[in-house]
Specification:
This is Sigma-54-dependent Fis family transcriptional regulator. The protein has 446 residues and is an alpha/beta fold. Helix content is 39%, strand content 16%.
Length: 446
Amino acid sequence: MKQIPAFSLLLAHFDHNELLASLLALVAGSPVYCVDKGQHILYWSEAMAQLTGLPACDVVAKRCAPEYALTTEEDGQVLSLINKDGQTVCLKKSVQMVYDQYGAVSGGLGLLNACGQALAKEAVPSIQKTTKQNFYGIISRSPAMQAVFQIIENAAETTATVLVRGESGAGKELVARAIHQLSARRNAPFLAINCAALSSSLLESELFGHVRGAFTGAVKDHHGMFQRAHGGTLFLDEVAELPLDLQAKLLRVIQERNFIPVGGDRSVSVDVRLVAASHRSLREQVKKGEFREDLMYRLRVVPIFLPPLRERREDISLLLWHFIQVHNGENLRKIDKIDPLAMRLLLDYAWPGNVRELHNVIEYAFAVGRGSILKVAELPPEFREPTSTESPAIALLTNKLRLSAEEEAVAIRQALQQSNGSLGHAGDLLGMSRATLWRKRKRYGL
């Protein structure tokens, strides 16, 4: 890169190291950083540390996070970041590439400028139901979830049976309710039942009803959920746990639109839209002989897959502030900030219980803590007491032995479990940098 003559004159009058040190000291109050050509951080100003909550000692010599990456195409890019106070701030990134004497890129300088006021805490979760970030109670800004929302909207216009697949706590019932609310059946009943929560006999009675005298204690006729949901929607949660004998009866209802109550001798006609859900793969259950193949095809006319929270980490802060606002409204305590270390633990956690677990963590914090700042001490014990026992798979990896991709994935999974989702601690167990761990997690879908 050809030097500007005036700048060459400046360099001739000062020691280069002293000049650079003075310039960096001058801009220490601004969010400035410098990286080499491999995107490893060489300089991290005090203002940058204040903005992000990440001190220089934690980031210098490490690979730059993707949101700060320096490329000529990203100059002027607008970013939304969580600052050290837990606020969402809008920033404009300016970059300047630095070249060596041969004209090759040797690194770059970056500057973050505020392009608007920090968003108030209440503004983060206060998203109108008309936006795609709050879709009938499903809070998300993840691209993967936006695709799910579109499928929900399309499926709701039909009467097709929907099968929702997702982990526990991911929001399967919310999907069913959204389909109901968007459908022509919105003014009719919506009923839900967990097929794993009742014994076979009780479940049959709850679903299909019984007549008086059908069994001991049946002193009067009882309308089941199919009958009570007539004209509306019935949500069958954990449908994979349905006993085989009831699977045959459910298949009849779907095919014939009628059923016979327990102990009855006359069929009852019903018009019910079915939405089923399971955390198991019905195909795998069919292979095991535990689920009817014909019923599987009847249920999964429109399959919807809900990604777990660990695969849509951009939703974590959004959900945190949503649930904080919900509990702020109870006037027992009002949280308007999250301690930077607590926020880092929350963002790095694996969330095996998904959205339900995240909500429980906020409830815990409101119950045990006081004051306007959510602190680390107010998080459940699993956030503060990572296990330190090294698993055999982790030992193989840290001993630098050659592992297959499957073995390496197992080691990473075990490290994340032992560290309760903390990427920093898991990286220490594995002997990996945070950036390497992020990359491998993405590769193995962990």
